[in-house]
C-alpha cells in the first residue's frame, strides 16, 4: 500500500511537470533550469545510469520469466539476455515508428492477461484461495523483522515507479496537444500500475508465495500456477510477462539517446550523441546503451537478484531534484494556482527524497554503492567535457577570424616505390604550384632512384633510411620538421601516394606503411597531410598536369580552423574553389550562412541538404558531379581538423572528418587533404573574438 501511495504521489506531481513543460521537461531540464548546473547534471547522470539498469534488469527479468516456464534452458540465461538486448537494439535502430508498432501489441496483451490473472485469482479467493507451489516452505530465519528489513522490502517494491520519468522526457513525441496527452497517459499508466501492483501483491500474500534467493520460479509464475494450474493460462502469463519485461527496455532506448542528445546540445557529452541517423534515431546513444547494458549483464551473469540492488537509486535522485526544481519554477513564474501546484510538487519532492534515503541505505551494501559512486564520477566527466568544449570554442574564435593571406606552400611527396599513384602525386604537386617540390623515399625498392629519374627530373629525391616502419616514421617526422623550419610561416604539405586496393582487408594488409604515415603525421602540428590514391597499372608512368582542378572546403562552422583551411585552399591554384556545408540542422546551417555573410567571405558557400542525414554519402555524391578521373579532372576535398593537446580529447573531435575521409578513400580522382589547426587549451575568455553583429562586416 505504501508503494501504491508513493506511485500516486509521483504521478500527480509529474502531471504538473508535463503541463508546465510542454516541450519536454525531464529531470535534467527542470533541475538545471530552476536549480542550476550541478543539480541538473546530477539528475541527468542518475537517469543515464538508471536507463542502463532498466535495460539490464528488464531483460534479465524477462529471461527469468522464460526459465520459470522452461527450467531446462536456465543455463543459457546469459546468452538469451544478450540476444534480447541485440534484438531490441536492432528494432530501435530501425526507427521510432517501427519500434512503437512492434512493442504496442505485447503491451496490450500483457495488461489484459494480468487483469485476467488478478480477477480470476480474486474470484477463486471468494471460496478459498489456491496455494502456490512454495506455500508452506520453511526458511531459515536470518534476522528479526526489524524496521530495516521492512524498509528494504519497501525499497524493492519502489521499482514500480521507474517508468514515470520517461513520459516527461518524451512529451514532444506525443500528438498535439502534447502536454495534455502526456498528462492523460501518466494518469492511465498510474491507474494500471496501482491496480495491478495491489492485485498481484494481494494474491502473492493470499496464495502464500514464499520467495527466496535461487527459487526456480518467479513470484508471478507461482501465482499463475496457483490460479491457472499448469495449463494454457500459466504459459500465457509467462509469455506476455517475458515479452513485456524484455520490451520494457524500449523505454530506456527511447529516453537514453534523447537525454544524451540534449546533454550534447549543452556541450556536456561528445557531439556524436547528437547525430540522427537516416531513420531519425540517435543511433550512437542507442548503441552505447546496448553495450553498457550488455556489460552489466555479463558482469552480474544476468542475475535479477543482484542487478535489482543497483536499481532505483538513480530514478529517485531524479524524482527528488525534478520536483524540487518544480517548486522553484512555481515560485518564479507564479502562474495560475501556483501555490497549490507548489505544495503538490513540494510534497512529491519530500516524499521521493525520503524514499531515496531509504533506498540508498537499505541497498547500499547490496550494490547501490556502485551507483552512488558512479553518479558524481559521471557528473565530473560531463563537467570536464563541457569545459573542454568551451575552451575549444574560445580558442577557435580568439583574435580576428579572417583568412590567412600570403602563405606559400611547400610540397613533399612520400613514396616507397614508383607506380601509378606516385605519378599521380607528382602530377598533382605540379598542379597546385607549390613554392618548392621534393620527394622522400621511405623503405624504398632497390631501383627506386632509377625509376624516379625516368618519371621526373624536376623534383629532387631524398632517401630516408630505416629498418622498420617505426624508424621510418620517426625519420619522416624529422625530415618534415626540418622542412618546416626552413620555411617558417608557410604551409608544408606531405603528399602520401597510395595504390588503390580492392578492399579494406587488402588495404590493411598491403598498405600498412601508408596508413602508419597518415596516422602519425596527422598528429604533427602545422603539417598538411594529403592522400592520393590511384589504381595499379603496369606502366609506363607519366607526369600529366590535370586540366581541371576543383577544390572543395568542407565547413561545419565559421572559425579559425575554417579560415586556415580556406587560406590553404586558395594556394592550390584551383580551377574552381568553393566551400560546402551539409545541412543536418536548420539552426546550425542558418548560423553558418549568417556568419559567412557577416564576415564577407569571398569564397562562395554552398549548402547541401542531406535527405538521408548522411554527411559522407552527401559529400561523395557532390564530388562525383565533377566527374573526376584522376588525370584530366581532379577534385581536392579540404577538411579542417583539430589537433588536440591530449590523447583523451581525440574522441571528442574529428569523427566526422574521419567518416568523410573513409567515404572518399576509394573515389577515383578525389584527393583528400587534412589541414590541421592545433588547439593549445590556454585561451582566456577575454581573448576570444566577440560574436558577429548583423550589418557589421569584419573585412
Model description:
- With 699 residues, this protein is an alpha/beta fold.
- The chain has 3 domains: 2-134 and 144-389, Amino acid/polyamine transporter I, CATH 1.20.1740.10; 406-545, Rossmann fold, CATH 3.40.50; 546-699, Rossmann fold.
- It contains 25 helices and 10 strands.
- It has a 10-stranded mixed β-sheet with strand order 3-2-1-4-5-10-9-6-7-8, sandwiched between helices.
- Helix 23 links the parallel strand 7 and strand 8 (605-609).
- Helix 5 (96-125) runs parallel beside helix 8, helix 14 runs antiparallel to helix 15 (338-362) and helix 19 (469-486) packs across helix 21.
- It starts with a helix and ends in a 21-residue tail after the last strand.
- 43% of the residues are buried.
- The model is unreliable at 141-158 and 684-699 (pLDDT under 50).
Shape: elongated
User: Helicity level, as a percent range?
Assistant: 55-70%
Structure classification: alpha/beta
Number of domains: 3
What is the overall pLDDT average? 80
CATH class of the largest domain: Mainly Alpha
pLDDT below 50 for ≥5 consecutive residues: which ranges? 141-158, 684-699
Helix segment count? 25
CATH topology of the largest domain: Amino acid/polyamine transporter I
Largest pleated sheet: 10 strands, mixed
CATH superfamily of the largest domain: Amino acid/polyamine transporter I
With strands numbered from the N-terminus, the spatial order across the biggest sheet is 3-2-1-4-5-10-9-6-7-8
Between the first and last Cα atoms, what is the distance in angstroms? 71 Å
Radius of gyration: 32 Å
Q: How many extended strands?
A: 10
Amino acid at each position: 500500500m505504501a508503494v501504491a501511495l508513493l506511485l500516486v504521489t509521483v504521478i500527480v506531481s509529474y502531471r504538473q511537470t508535463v503541463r508546465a513543460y510542454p516541450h519536454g521537461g525531464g529531470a535534467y531540464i527542470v533541475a538545471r533550469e530552476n536549480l542550476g548546473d550541478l543539480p541538473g547534471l546530477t539528475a541527468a547522470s542518475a537517469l543515464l545510469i538508471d536507463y542502463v539498469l532498466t535495460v539490464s534488469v528488464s531483460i534479465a527479468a524477462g529471461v527469468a520469466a522464460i526459465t520459470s516456464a522452461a527450467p531446462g534452458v536456465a543455463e543459457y540465461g546469459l546468452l538469451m539476455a544478450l540476444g534480447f538486448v541485440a534484438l531490441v537494439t536492432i528494432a530501435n535502430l530501425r526507427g521510432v515508428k517501427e519500434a512503437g508498432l512492434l512493442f504496442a501489441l505485447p503491451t496490450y496483451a500483457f495488461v489484459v492477461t494480468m487483469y485476467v490473472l488478478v480477477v480470476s485469482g480474486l474470484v477463486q479467493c471468494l471460496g478459498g484461495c489456491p496455494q502456490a507451489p512454495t506455500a508452506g516452505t520453511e526458511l531459515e530465519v536470518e534476522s528479526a523483522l526489524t524496521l530495516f528489513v521492512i524498509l528494504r522490502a519497501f525499497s524493492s517494491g519502489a521499482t514500480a515507479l521507474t517508468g514515470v520519468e520517461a513520459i516527461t522526457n518524451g512529451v514532444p513525441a506525443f500528438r498535439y496537444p502534447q502536454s495534455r496527452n502526456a498528462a492523460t497517459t501518466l494518469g492511465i499508466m498510474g491507474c494500471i500500475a496501482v491496480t495491478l501492483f495491489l492485485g498481484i501483491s494481494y494474491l502473492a500474500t493470499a496464495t502464500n508465495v514464499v520467495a527466496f534467493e535461487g527459487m526456480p520460479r518467479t513470484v508471478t509464475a507461482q501465482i499463475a500456477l496457483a490460479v491457472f494450474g499448469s495449463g494454457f493460462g500459466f504459459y500465457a502469463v509467462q509469455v506476455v510477462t517475458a515479452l513485456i519485461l524484455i520490451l520494457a527496455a524500449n523505454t530506456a532506448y527511447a529516453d537514453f539517446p534523447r537525454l544524451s542528445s540534449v546533454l550534447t546540445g549543452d556541450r556536456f557529452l561528445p557531439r556524436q550523441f547528437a547525430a540522427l541517423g537516416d531513420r531519425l534515431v540517435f543511433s550512437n546513444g542507442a548503441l552505447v546503451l546496448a553495450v553498457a547494458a550488455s556489460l552489466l549483464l555479463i558482469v552480474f551473469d544476468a542475475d535479477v537478484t543482484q542487478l535489482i540492488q543497483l536499481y532505483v537509486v538513480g530514478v529517485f535522485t531524479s524524482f527528488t531534484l525534478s520536483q524540487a526544481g518544480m517548486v522553484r519554477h512555481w515560485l518564479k513564474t507564479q502562474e495560475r494556482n501556483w501555490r497549490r501546484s507548489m505544495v503538490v510538487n513540494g510534497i512529491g519532492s519530500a516524499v521521493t527524497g525520503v524514499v531515496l534515503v531509504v533506498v540508498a541505505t537499505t541497498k547500499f551494501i547490496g550494490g547501490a554503492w556502485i551507483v552512488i559512486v558512479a553518479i558524481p564520477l559521471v557528473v565530473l566527466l560531463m563537467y570536464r567535457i563541457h569545459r573542454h568544449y568551451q575552451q575549444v570554442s574560445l580558442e577557435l574564435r580568439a583574435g580576428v577570424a579572417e583568412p590567412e593571406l600570403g602563405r606559400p606552400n611547400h610540397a613533399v611527396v612520400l613514396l616507397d616505390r614508383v607506380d601509378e599513384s606516385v605519378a599521380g602525386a607528382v602530377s598533382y604537386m605540379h598542379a597546385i604550384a607549390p613554392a618548392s617540390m621534393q620527394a622522400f623515399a621511405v623503405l624504398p625498392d632497390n631501383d627506386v632512384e632509377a625509376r624516379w629519374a625516368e618519371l621526373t627530373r624536376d623534383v629532387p629525391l631524398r632517401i630516408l633510411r630505416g629498418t622498420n616502419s617505426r624508424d621510418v616514421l620517426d625519420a619522416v617526422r624529422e625530415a618534415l620538421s626540418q622542412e618546416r623550419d626552413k620555411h617558417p610561416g608557410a604551409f608544408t604539405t606531405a603528399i602520401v601516394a597510395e595504390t588503390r586496393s580492392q578492399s579494406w582487408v587488402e588495404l590493411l594488409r598491403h598498405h600498412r606503411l601508408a596508413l602508419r604515415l597518415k596516422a602519425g603525421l596527422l598528429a604533427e602540428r602545422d603539417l598538411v597531410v594529403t592522400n592520393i590514391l590511384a589504381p595499379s597499372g603496369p606502366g609506363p608512368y607519366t607526369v600529366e598536369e590535370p586540366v581541371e582542378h576543383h577544390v572543395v572546403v568542407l565547413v561545419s562552422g565559421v572559425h579559425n580552423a575554417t579560415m586556415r583551411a580556406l587560406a590553404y585552399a586558395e594556394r592550390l591554384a584551383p580551377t574552381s574553389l568553393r566551400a560546402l556545408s551539409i545541412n543536418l540542422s536548420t539552426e546550425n546551417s542558418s548560423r553558418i550562412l549568417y556568419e559567412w555573410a557577416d564576415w564577407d567571405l569571398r569564397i562562395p558557400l554552398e549548402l547541401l541538404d542531406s535527405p538521408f542525414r548522411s554527411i559522407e554519402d552527401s559529400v561523395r555524391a557532390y564530388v562525383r558531379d565533377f566527374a573526376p578521373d584522376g588525370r584530366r579532372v581532379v577534385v581536392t576535398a579540404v577538411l579542417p581538423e583539430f589537433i588536440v593537446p591530449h590523447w583523451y580529447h581525440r574522441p571528442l573531435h574529428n569523427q566526422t572528418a574521419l567518416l568523410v575521409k573513409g567515404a572518399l578513400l576509394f573515389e577515383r580522382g578525389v584527393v583528400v587533404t587534412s589541414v590541421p589547426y592545433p588547439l593549445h587549451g590556454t585561451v582566456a575568455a577575454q581573448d576570444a573574438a566577440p560574436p558577429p553583429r548583423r550589418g557589421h562586416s569584419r573585412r
